[in-house]
Amino acid sequence: MALKDCTGFVGRRLLIQDLPNQRDVRNAVFIPPGTAPQWGLFEPSGRSVPEGMLYTGAGALHTPLCSRDCADIPACPVLSDEFDYFFLGNLNPSYPYFFANVFSRLWGLPPYARSRLKLVFSSPQPVAQLMAQSYFRTIMTALDLTADHFLQVLSPVRFPRITVAAAAFEVPAGFIPSPLSKDHSCSGGI
Q1: What burial letters (b/e) apply to 124-142, b meaning 16+ CB within 10 Å?
Q2: What is the pLDDT of residues 82-94, one digit of tens each?
Q3: What is the reported pTM?
Q4: Residue 78 contacts residue 160 (beta carbons within 8 Å)
Q5: How would you class 76 by CB atoms within 10 Å of its CB: exposed for 0-12, middle for 13-18, buried for 19 or more?
Q6: Would you say 162 and 130 are in contact if contact means Cβ atoms under 8 Å apart?
């Protein structure tokens, strides 16, 4: 598989062999990191949308970086239903993190005309700065995407409908280097 070549970018990563889940979520709320104690993409019930989560192997396999639930969904504006929203999540502009956590979600992009497409993300950098990075601009150009296709979320918002594709990578727990290990090599077995 071609994606296995990416495993050297951010430590060791597992590649999910089957296509990751993708689904449309109605009435979902996206709370970006740093805007509330709980952050992530949530269903109206307050339960996290599993496909929208990022996982790390720190502590144990399949440990989420974002919140599993949000008991108090904040009151927030509802975005227009004139766009087709596609969830990218928290976009870390670092090259390896982008490939591991965001790029793999793009497999689910619809192939049709993208005039209504809005790629939903949160990031400390605006889209103009992201597009200035050559790797990012090259990928987006190849996918026929421009800065106009992106929607940066800075505070909680509700979507009438949003498509969420799960990321294809996850850090295996046994490969997180232990600060106590002398050589910081694989701390667990395969």
Answers
A1: eeebeebbeeeebeebbee
A2: 999 999 988 877 7
A3: 0.76
A4: yes
A5: middle
A6: no
